[in-house]
Amino acid sequence: MALKKIGFLSFGHWSESYGSRVRSATDSLLQAIELAVAAEELGANGAYFRVHHFARQLSSPFPLLAAIGARTRTIEIGTAVIDMRYENPLYMAEDAGAADIIAGGRLQLGISRGSPEQVIDGWRQFGYTPAAGESDADMARRHAEALLDVLKGEGFAKPNPRPMFPNPPGLLRVEPHSEGLRDRIWWGSSSNATSRWAAKLGMNLQSSTLKDDESGEPLHVQQRLQIEAYREAWKEAGHQREPRVSVSRSIFALLDDRDRAYFGRDSRERDQIGYIDGNTRAIFGRSYAAEPDVLVKELATDEAIAAADTLLLTVPNTLGVDYNAHVIESILKYVAPALGWR
User: Structural domain tally of the chain?
Assistant: First the structure.
């Protein structure tokens, strides 16, 4: 296998349940920063966060990404993913531009049409309604295309002839503009069709541990086919740069009694089939939990990991910074080198 960028993906849960080391929003946000700092020191390449609304999880990513950007120097900082049904593309472009500048151009923003929610049509509570004939997924893709246009940095707003402050010549754009951010937008895709759509628009691809079941084959095979379809569509679109592709996995090396207590009896050793809504049959990826030598053999057969350039390790953030740093270090030290990822 080829060298890979390896990062972590945190959902940022907090809970007062027994054993949780993350008992409040304060704990979740501050520990997210500390884990990103620790991951950079360990040599990880990315710190990524899932965004959910109306839930005791991370919801407003840009203050967190900016804070991490100010505390770190090399690690990529991203999302996987932001639900575009909830987003104002212009305001999002301003927030993203500011955070990217603070981070020195290290943002990697994963966006998507969203997933099943805690509330019914939560995006309506944020003031967004699909246009006539649109679904909420259509609205999310429309918001995404508007964001991509704004991130080009071209002026589009007619200036006031009597402004409060002098304007530069020509039409105005939203500020601050961060050069290069447009190429660091990723689409979280659960189907082959939306992966091809993302490629056409020049977005990178994120594929998680959940995908539409389009063939009945194992998840890693379906994802490999999805990645191949994406790259073929990218080539047909004629883009000049090489795209990036990430997949997410739950991988735990069993090194000590803590690891075995937490994950030694993980029951998800096979993919699972379910429905994420009334009409969509989905496949949920298995977890990997074993001694490092066993993990190396199992992961060597994962076709999607082999096809991707970036691997995101989903971490159990409620177990605290120290344990999650141990989880990340275990993969970087005992698994990645044996697979040629390092």
Answer: 1
